[in-house]
Amino acid sequence: MIKTFCTMLAAGLTIIWTDAVIAQWVDRESMTRLINGASITRLAPGTTTHGGMVAVTDAKASALPEAANNGTPSKNALVGSWLETVTFPPESGRPQLKGLVTFHGDGTMVNSDQGTVTVDPPSVSTSGHGVWAPLERRTFAYTQFELISDLSGNLVGYLKVRGIYTVAQSGDEYTGNSFAEVFDTAGNVLFSVDVTNAGQRIQLELP
Questions:
Q1: For residue 72, what pLDDT is reported?
Q2: Structural domains of the chain in order of their starting residue, each with its CATH number
Q3: Nearest to 31 by CA among 206, 199, 148, 178
Q4: Positive or negative, the Cα torsion across 74, 111, 180, 91?
Q5: Whole-prediction pTM
Q6: If DSSP states are collapsed to H, E and C, what string results for 99-156?
Q7: Residue whose C-alpha is closest to residue 19's, from 164, 124, 137
Q8: Which tens digit of pLDDT belongs to each residue from 147-163?
Q9: How distant, in Å, are the alpha carbons of 77, 121, 127 from that of 174?
Q10: Is 167 helix (H, G, I), strand (E, B) or coil?
């Protein structure tokens, strides 16, 4: 069963969720410190940390306008919908994939991406749901989950993705990296991978 499931994970990693970004590469140790709260010392009012987790406690605070260039988190820089490109490590042999992600003003997020249904072996994953919070001006962290099921609807695992990303000065692009882990239903890590991400804001266009 584990061997079969690991094969599914390797063959079906097109379900990987993709939203982590930063203008410069962040190594695993630095990203882990940030996500665990060791370096989250400049959170804006309305956010708190609980055991390394970041939570937005004031939905209204996320609607504040862009802050001046003084290091204060620009909390609305990420809000909106994005078309994202995910790039896997060269040694993985996997092609890029596309995803759609929306960051809400209350600090929650949802996403969908290509390849959420695979046929060899058969599996399907839900859309991703998660939370995000500012670290510093235009730089953000997120955590999200997906459920993985067989085609009969039986839960076979989870996908957890954490990352850090930075929105460009223009407000229309982001770049960065994320760390994804696949767990079995008992919480054992079966697979993990680092990916890089690049997003383009979806703009309003009249017909």
A1: 56
A2: 2-201 (2.40.128.120)
A3: 178
A4: negative
A5: 0.67
A6: EEEEECCCCEEEEEECCCEEECCEEEECCEEEEEEEEECCEEEEEEEEEEECCCCCEE
A7: 164
A8: 999 999 999 999 999 99
A9: 10, 33, 21
A10: strand
